[in-house]
Amino acid sequence: MANIAVLDDVYDAGIMVQRILTRKNHTVYPFTEEEDFLSFIKKEKIDLAILDIKLKKLSGVEVLEEAKKISPEIKVLMLTGYPTIETAQRCLQLGADEYLVKPIDKHELEEKVAKVLSGEDSG
Amino acid sequence: MFITQIFSYWSRQIFAPGSLLRKKYQYFRDLLALDRYCLEKMAEIEEIHYRSLPCDYARVARLCRELDQGVGKLIKSITALNPLRYRVLRDYHHKVSFYLDLALSINNPETEPPYVLGLDEELREELGGGKARNLSIIKTKDFSTPKGFCITTHGFNSLISANILRPKINDVLSQVSLDRIDDFEERCAQIQQLILEAVIPDHVQEQIQAGLDKLGKSRLAVRSSAFGEDGDLSFAGQYKSLLNVDPSDFDQAYKKVLASKYSPRAMTYRIHAGLPDELLPMAVLVLEMVDPQESGVVYSSGVKNRDEVGIYIVSGLGDKLVSGEVKAREYFIKKTHDFDFSGSVPSYLESLYNHALDLEQLFGKPQDIEWVVDKQGKLFILQTRSLQAIKPDSDAPGLDLPVLARGEWASPGLVSGKIYIFESKEDISKIPKGSIAVAQGLYPGLTAAISNLGGVISREGSAASHFATIARESSLPVIINVSHADVFSDGQLVTMDGNRGIIHDGKAEPRMLFSHKKKTWLTRKMKKVLEHVSTLNLKDAESEDFTPHNCLSMHDLIRFTHEMGVREMFALADRKGRGLQQSKVLNLEIPLVFRVLNLEEGLTQEAEAQSNVSLKDVKCRPFLAMFSGLAHEKIEWDHSIQHFDWEEFDKVSAGVFDPTKSSLLSSYGLLARDYMHVLIRFGYHFVVVDSLLGQEKEQNYIQFSFKGGGAEESKRVMRLEAIRLVFEEFGFNTDIRGDLLKAEYNRENLDDTKKRLRIIGYVLGKTRLKDMSMNEQKIQTLAGEYIEEIKTILDNETSPGEKHDR
Questions:
Q1: For B51-74, what is each residue's pLDDT tens digit?
Q2: The sheet that has B241-245: what strands, in order across it?
Q3: Measured over all CA atoms, what is the biggest interatomic distance in chain A, rounded to whole angstroms?
Q4: Do A123 and B531 touch (CB under 8 A)?
Q5: Which tens digit of pLDDT belongs to each residue from B727-759?
Q6: Averaging pLDDT over each range in B169-178, B307-316, B455-464, which range is the top one?
Q7: E-strand spans in B51-134?
Q8: CA A99, A104, A108, A114 torsion: positive or negative?
Q9: Phi, psi dihedral angles at B28 (to 5 degrees)
Q10: Cβ–Cβ under 8 Å, residues B450 and B468
């Protein structure tokens, strides 16, 4: 199953994602700090990154851009509470595979993760 | 308007001012009205997809916006009914709303430089359009072309953006309907006017001026070069080209060419091709005019005979040829035989022939080439593009209409119109718009009337003729070699199937004229959009999954809100001392589980003490009227299901049944003396009848909606069609959108309105299981039968239901 890194400034949010996806037999690494996340994906092979848009120092869009530089084949699922279409389009242009809007629904998260990992065309 | 009327009506009659109940009832009425509004919007969106309606994408976007706002209000009204329980719905609405927006969005058009590019620079099609791109390619291969430059698609985008035209254009586009021709032309003209009045932004203007300065004082050809012109689609001849333009008039000429993107013909073509306006920005090619001795077109491979180069020549400017004003000299040169170019043929014919072969090789496809020879005898290539593949659209739907005559297709497409028998050249100017001309042959002169023609049928002719070529470019159906052309008479309504070479009697419905299978940008986009609009994930109101967080589409949100709104109203009845009686089981002689809630004087006073009531306890006038139709003796019911229902009744009366938690109440009615809101479930069918029936004619109304389930789409639509025919016969306004039938009967007197309610009941009873085995013929027969039965009933008897009513 897949290696998944989650970056969300709210610790509990990352843990919740971890709990849901671990049940699907994925290995999930939650992060709250941008630097930790980026240095982690430099070292480890990660299949999927789940990025919140609102972070502490950088924006999720910037992290997405960095992550794609570090590992171009990494799949990315963006996570956001108050989305704008412009940001979403920008993320899709930068290579994000899917978009997930909070509140997070378990089924939706599972479905979208499965879809992105299977390499289907994003919605 | 109506809603407000009803409020004041009810607020006067039922509730004490300011009471909580009055407010709740008001919110509920709001909710019902909004529910109806949202379902209609949704059906309108679905209809575009399922019926392949020819409408602009801007319409889809507008309807989705309206739906989104409607759902927002709907959620407000349920939140008003119970703030704590439903506040979370707002978050889920935001979420669905965002997904929908994202599915709808088109990337913002690029407005960055370059705005002008020389033909010797590399020109991507996205920037220069097909025409300029091809010209720049052949220029680098040393074909001689006139001097010139190209104003890029970014220049167009920049003009639209600087003048803030996009919202205005899309507003007009969202109202466009190809079914209403006059209106359509006016809307096209509105957009064209916007473009003509726009100001070219300075940063674009400067680059254009620099380009013009290089060309000096010579007169110019200003030609469209639209993006997408050269793909599978051919917008050939759809856009404007202006010749002999004085450089000092350039600005206006540029805008005129841009505006031709919104000519009725180009818009019709674009909309049928299922492409949004934003994705086809227009570049413009500016070329120095060549003083022509002769000009024309070359097809590097013949239309039917691939081994033949077709060369068409006219004196002077070639536009006369394309517009069909003059007949060309034609040369068809076989590639397989040596041709004697030394004979009495134009001196440039050989090099034209060789150019055609070279260009075909360069682009790897047969080419359609425009050329000109100047007074010094020098040959210039003005344009080359892929010759439009001509094959009939085998995916196009066949028509279920009688066949009048058969021939061979020369230009594909489907069209309905009136026959015009064309006898002499003088008749050309008399051809009424949209006519299907019947002619002896494909006269070149017909090209002059091409914009007036709907189609052409000819006794003889060839698909290789110049007229047939132009007809194909103009998407004008042509059928040739029709041997029995004398079956036609002037004014006769026929439908041409240019794909199969068949002429049918009668008129095809507009939606039959478009291929349902054709995958376009719009059909792909609509699939994604509908995922967030109409996909129903909350199927079972009884299930644990029937929760806000499982609302993944607008439909889910609407469904959830309606169901909960109704439960809230029923929940009101359970609380004591609030002025509303409890909901009660209505015992019926027909096997239908029905619960009723008395709003005010809908039941007798004696009934108040009982938990089960019978029809004689009901005083609600609209309900009794409808029921007299539903329970009519001519309707047969299968009583075997009644046993199960009685069990349900028992559970209910034993108090097991919690109306706030359960939707076991298959059907229910909110009843007042003059008002009812009734929801009836027959299996998967979902019928809502909302009616006010009183002495005041202006307040009376019936609103009926029927949403079917179960059977596959086409069959559902057919069943709706049968019901619609009956309702139409009795003066209802009806409308079918997707699988929602809506019928209204407004502002008529008590007796007439009452009769219509009876008809509704009768038709519902009759058609409750009629669904799976219908075809178009059966619809007519069935509707006819019902209409006769109803007329007999209305003429001959007074129903039991009516006796309750004075």
A1: 777 789 999 999 999 999 999 999
A2: B116-118, B148-151, B282-288, B220-226, B241-245
A3: 34
A4: yes
A5: 999 999 998 877 788 898 887 899 999 999 999
A6: B169-178
A7: 116-118
A8: positive
A9: -65, -40
A10: no
Distance separating alpha carbons of residues A5 and A45, to the nearest angstrom? 10
What is the side-by-side strand order in the sheet with B478-480? Answer: B403-406, B502-505, B493-497, B414-421, B435-439, B453-458, B478-480, B408-411
Backbone angles phi, psi at B800, to 5 degrees: -60, -35
Q: Letter for the amino acid at B85?
A: R
Residue B511 pLDDT > 50: yes
Predicted pLDDT of residue B108: 84
pLDDT value of residue B804: 42
Q: What sign does the CA torsion over B579, B580, B584, B586 have?
A: positive
DSSP state of B618: B
Q: Which chain B residue's Cα is nearest to A101?
A: B95
B481 has a pLDDT exceeding 80: yes
Q: Which amino acid is at B41?
A: K
Among B95, B105, B550, beta carbon nearest to A89? B105
Query: Does position B8 have pLDDT exceeding 50, yes or no?
Result: no
Strands B612-614 and B584-587: parallel
Between CA B530 and CA B63 the distance in angstroms is 12
Q: Which residue has the higher pLDDT, B93 or B339?
A: B93
Q: Which of A88, A103, A107 sits opposite B102 (nearest CB)?
A: A88
Residues from chain B contacting residue A93 (CB–CB below 8 Å): 107
**Vertex B476: Cα angle to B473 and B477 (nearest 5):** 120
- Which residue shows structure tokens 């700090």? A33
- Structure confidence at residue B554 (pLDDT): 96
Whether the full predicted model's pTM is greater than 0.90, yes or no, is no
Instruction: Supply B250's token pair.
Output: 């350039």
Quick one: B27 exposed, middle or buried, by C-beta within 10 A (0-12, 13-18, 19+)?
buried
> Cβ of B91 under 8 Å from any chain A Cβ?
yes
Q: Which two tokens stand for residue B5?
A: 């009327």
Q: What are the average pLDDT values for consecutive 10-residue runs of chain A, which has 123 residues?
A: 93 92 94 94 94 90 94 93 87 92 88 89 47
- By C-alpha distance, which of B240, B131, B126, B233 is closest to B188? B240
Q: What are phi and psi of B585, to 5 degrees?
A: -80, 130
Q: For residue B749, report the phi and psi dihedrals to the nearest 5 degrees.
A: -70, 170
Residues of chain A whose C-beta is under 8 A from some C-beta in B?
A: 83, 85, 88-89, 93, 99, 101-103, 105, 107-108, 123
**Residues B805, B695: contact at Cβ < 8 Å?**
no
Q: How many CA atoms lie within 13 A of B169 on its CB side?
A: 24
Q: Which residue has the tokens 């938690």?
A: B661
Average pLDDT rounded to a whole number, residues B655-679: 62
**Contacts of residue B721, Cβ cutoff 8 Å, sequence gap at least 6:** B736, B779
Q: Check residue B603 and report its DSSP letter.
A: B
Instruction: Inspect the interface and report whether the beta carbons of A123 and B103 lie closer than 8 Å.
Output: yes
